């Protein structure tokens, strides 16, 4: 794992690319730069672990590039449950819910991840309330998509079929 300079990441990825990431959708360039400059950008090589098992989530992450696999710890096993791709958030639900991490993340390919701490998240609300509202909509939209995906998986696994 390597800590990256925000200005270098912004320069290499470009603001048009960052603007297209779903979590940053409709945010001003100023706020995107604020988030990257105030957060911590980490580079993980393929195979690196982002192990935080049983730690209280005090931050969440946005995948800037690459792909991360999440393995949920369940009954003594780590089970692959999903992949996180560019623009998707990781651990926002845990941070908001004050929930402990219950699995590990593994870089499937070289990846860049932005950490946003709970204090930075609060500061965003104070300093940029309109953009904060947009960010909350983006995060809520992604969580609702995750819930719908989980409902589909559960329904398919137990053979739910609604009669019309």
Topology (elements, then pairings):
Layout lengths: L1 E3 L1 H8 L1 H5 L9 H10 L1 E5 L4 E3 L7 E16 L2 E8 L4 E2 L1 H6 L5 E15 H10 L1 H30 L6
Antiparallel strand pairs: 1-2, 2-7, 3-7, 4-5, 4-6, 4-7
Helix pairs in contact: 5-6
Q: Report the count of strand segments.
A: 7
Mean pLDDT: 93
**Count the helices. How many?**
6
Tally of discrete structural domains: 1
Describe the structure.
With 164 residues, the protein is an alpha+beta fold. The chain has a single domain, classed as Jelly Rolls, CATH 2.60.120. Helix content is 42%, strand content 32%. The longest helix is centred in the last third of the chain and has 30 residues. The chain is globular, with a radius of gyration of 17 Å. The model has no long low-confidence stretch (mean pLDDT 93).
């Amino acid at each position: 794992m390597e800590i990256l300079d925000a200005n270098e990441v912004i320069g290499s990825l470009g603001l048009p690319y960052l603007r297209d990431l779903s979590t940053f959708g409709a945010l001003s360039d100023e706020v995107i730069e604020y988030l990257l400059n105030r957060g911590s950008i980490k580079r993980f090589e393929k195979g690196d672990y982002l192990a935080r098992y049983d730690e209280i989530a005090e931050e969440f992450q946005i995948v800037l590039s690459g792909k991360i696999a999440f393995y949920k710890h369940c009954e003594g096993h780590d089970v692959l449950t999903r992949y996180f791709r560019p623009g998707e958030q990781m651990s926002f639900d845990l941070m908001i819910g004050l929930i402990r991490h219950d699995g590990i993340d593994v870089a499937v390919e070289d990846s860049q991840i932005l950490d946003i701490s709970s204090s930075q998240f609060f500061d965003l609300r104070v300093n940029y309330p309109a953009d904060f509202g947009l960010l909350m909509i983006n995060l809520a939209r992604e969580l609702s998509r995750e819930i719908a995906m989980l409902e589909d998986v559960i329904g398919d696994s137990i053979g739910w079929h609604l009669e019309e």
